[in-house]
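Aim 2, interim progress: modelling of the zinc ion-bound target.
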Amino acid sequence: MGRIIAVDIGGTHMRAACFAPDELKPIQQKRIATLASEPGGFDRLVQVIKDVWPKDGDVDAIGLGSPGPLDPHTGYLLAPPNNPEWHNFPIAPKIAEQFGVRTFLDNDANLAGLAEYRFGAGKGHHDVLYLTVSTGIGAGVIIADRLLQGYHGLAAELGHCIIDPNGPLCSCGYQGHLEAFSSGPAIVKYVLGELDSGAMSKLTRNENMTARDIADAANNGDSLALAAYHRAGEYLGIAVASFLHAFDPSILILGGGVSRVGSLLLDPFHASLKKRVFHPRYLENLSISTAALGDDAGLLGARALAELKKAA
Ligand SMILES: [Zn+2]
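Predicted structure of the complex, ligand included:
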């Protein structure tokens, strides 16, 4: 069995690694700046793969992870953020042609979920719901040991589930999505709106305010900051209750910077979730865990995708 090359194409960095079968640590890895808005992105991608290519050339498959939207079935990027060069771009077919090796593509959140299932917090589970709560809200869903991709390859966009059709505007331009309630920027936007309406708080209006600043204020007992996290956790619970009804996983894995604030978000989340599942059986033996793989999740997910797909 040959080796796998995995590439995580992030907004700021591209990371490539070469993995031997059954080894978690890469044989070789390299990280370069993505420079998404500058021309030559494809050449940089080819070069970073060449940099980790084994001398004997024995590579079985390449796995690519990128922000969506994209089509994992055709290997086309549809409209990655900040990169006009890669709109409707056949990235996986072009890499396959360049290197003469089968190449597979999926989005970063799906791949982080797949990595947690194969190598991280979800190891040993067959039905996994992974949610990353950060600048945005992304998800990866594994059902009966298969990554849910969907007919168009656009499944599991759980951050864009509609929680309240009259709710705040989401980063995608539509209204009332989960991401517009519980992501980091949504928490900040809520606090700024409340300050504008005259809410009492130690926080002062500041365009550079972060969800972390609000977490610090909440930990010091600031009532507006506490309310902001309470609201984010409450809505996250509403959404996850629906996700349990849809997918019925045995483990929920929470990743992303916002979920790392801990009980500020998670206490109201748990209370809200418990109130909203329509049968208590959904919660029986349901593990709720934090993500185990951190920054390596995208890379390990691209590797897991290539391993699974080449064997299929
Ligand atoms: Zn949205």
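The first helix runs from residue 41 to 52. The pocket of zinc ion is lined by residues 160, 170, 172, 174, 177, 179 (CB under 6 Å).
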